[in-house]
Write a structure and sequence with these properties.
Length: about 260
């Protein structure tokens, strides 16, 4: 029996062009092809490096070019921060008294699980966002070391802010190690739930949401939060729901007898 012909067209090429996911990598013997294996190992190294990297405070202060201050969470170092997430949600007890507003908004930049994302993408996002918030009283930008999302609640409460937006490095993956998230909370105070927030995620220039597009979303959500007096699951994005984007079938489904 003749051997079947070896296909010459890559059936996964179109899918790979549409997503950074690793699709149809093939194999060499029982392993991945060498190039794909090296790329996978490189992506893992970037992800691990992002988790342990720290905020570049001098770079952030220079790039933001706006009044800023530095705070620490209750986690004294990176290993402790990673092992004890709750410490990253609380301010260091030795934190000096933060300037009290009242402010309409406080912006916080936190390292999260990818300081690389915060270092690279928070400054251009803030530069795009501030002109859209010209009618708001925005407090000094807070640079938070060893911080998690809920640290913004303590900061916003201490600074008597109506709302807080935490720009934080998201958990790195093998497709992106520098994804930035923006978490909006109206009426920040200690004890807020994740369901009290809105999130704009995957902010990065290549394969994600651009700084300009993210600034538009954040500004719109803040406007709606001020109008309604809340954020969270009851504050919906203005984008059409997925069902509205799927065209209706042009034929009736076949009836099953």
């Amino acid at each position: 029996m003749a051997e079947p012909p070896i296909p010459t067209r890559d059936p996964f090429a179109a899918l790979r062009a549409a997503t950074p996911a690793r699709i149809g990598l093939g194999r060499t013997g029982q392993s991945l092809p060498t190039g794909d294996l090296l790329a996978l190992q490189g992506a893992e190294a970037l992800a691990r490096g992002a988790v342990f990297k720290g905020l570049d405070l001098d770079h952030l202060a220079a790039e933001i070019n706006a009044p800023s201050l530095v705070v620490n969470s209750a986690a004294p170092d990176r290993p402790t921060y990673l092992r004890n997430p709750s410490l990253g949600r609380r301010l260091d007890p030795q934190t000096p008294i933060l300037p009290a507003g009242p402010f309409d908004l406080v912006l916080v930049i936190a390292d999260g699980l990818s300081a690389a994302a915060a270092n690279a993408h928070a400054p251009p996002l803030i530069r795009a966002l501030l002109p859209r918030l010209a009618d708001l009283r925005v407090g000094p930008i807070v640079l938070a070391r060893q911080g998690r999302v809920a640290l913004g609640d303590a900061i916003g409460e201490a600074m008597t802010a109506q709302a807080v937006v935490v720009l934080i490095g998201e958990r790195p993956g093998l497709s992106a190690a520098d994804s930035l998230g923006a978490y909006l909370t109206w009426g920040p105070r200690t004890g807020r739930l994740d369901s009290d927030r809105n999130c704009v995620s995957n902010i990065r220039p290549h394969g994600g949401l651009s700084a300009e597009a993210a600034a538009d979303k954040i500004a719109w959500l803040l406007t709606e939060a001020r109008r309604l007096g809340f954020t969270g699951v009851d504050l919906k994005d203005r984008e059409a729901p997925l069902a509205a984007l799927i065209p209706a079938p042009d034929h009736k489904p076949r009836q099953i007898p």
